[in-house]
Write a structure and sequence with these properties.
Number of helices: 1
Largest sheet: 5 strands, mixed, barrel
Number of strands: 8
Structural class: mainly beta
Strand content: over 45%
Length: 139
């Protein structure tokens, strides 16, 4: 059985745009920029991402432009008719999972435990976290 699962890590390039279909299914769309390489060999690839259902509403209520995210999904190509009447193709990443990345930013729950907030940068000790780490296995 073939699978076209893809995982990307990048930054939201625009605010998630939440809409509802005629059947009231939530749909959110946004772009994500992934960058690889260093210095003059940097390359940025843009992905158009679509999210559906409860996950779409959660994304719209949780993430904003510039946030670091990790997305797992599948690539899908749709055809459309251009203004000149010719056929065109558009590829989107249909997300099955979307999450905030802790690679460059730390996140903590607020007092109610219902939302997340960015705090500091990676490497800064969190007030509630231990200040020392060991090489021991966590199990």
């Amino acid at each position: 059985m073939a699978s076209n699962t893809i995982t990307i890590h990048g930054k939201l390039g625009k605010e998630p745009d939440l809409r509802y279909t005629g059947s009231q299914m939530a749909v959110v769309e946004f772009s994500v920029a992934t960058t690889s390489g260093k210095d003059d060999k940097k390359k940025t690839t843009w992905f158009e991402v679509k999210v559906f259902g409860q996950l779409a509403e959660n994304v719209a209520n949780s993430l904003t432009k510039g946030d670091n995210v990790v997305i797992i999904g599948r690539m899908e190509t749709d055809e459309y008719t251009k203004k000149d009447g010719t056929q065109g193709k558009f590829t989107s990443l249909i997300a099955d999972e979307v999450g905030a990345s802790c690679r460059w930013n730390a996140w903590v729950k607020d007092q109610t435990g219902q939302t997340m907030a960015r705090v500091g940068t990676v490497g800064k000790a969190m007030p509630s976290s231990p200040s020392t780490f060991t090489d021991e296995e966590p199990f």
